[in-house]
Amino acid sequence: MKASSIAFLLDTLASLLVVVLALLTYHRYVVQPALLIGMVDVAEVYRSKEAEFTQALTRADSPNARDQAMRLASDFARKLPRALDELPRECQCLVVLKSAVAGTSSRSVDLTAHLRKKLETP
Q1: Which pLDDT score is estimated for 117?
Q2: pTM over 0.85, yes/no
Q3: Is residue 56 within 8 Å of residue 69, measured between CB atoms?
Q4: CB contact burial 60-89 (16+ within 10 A = b; e otherwise)
Q5: Under DSSP, is residue 37 helix (H, G, I), strand (E, B) or coil?
């Protein structure tokens, strides 16, 4: 084999390797995350926190207990948007409201429990 044909073969293999790596990277970071859909039932989370807040407020028998119940509500109002913003980055997926999805598929995952856990941590 001539040196020029060996060089051509090596160039072709290097080009092929670069193309394969580029396609694999594109599939991993662009196509595959778009195929996974995370669903969140924000209304359910909100209702449960609202019930918790109402219960704490009705049981409050001192100004300190009422202030603590109000802090619970304000902490939730501050944490919810931040937690919802973090979900897509954590799951590497598209996150939608559960009420907006008609049916489920093997490509969908319910992230409501994960959202609750995020809201419980300080």
Answers
A1: 93
A2: no
A3: yes
A4: eeeeeeeeebeeebeebeebbeebbeebee
A5: strand
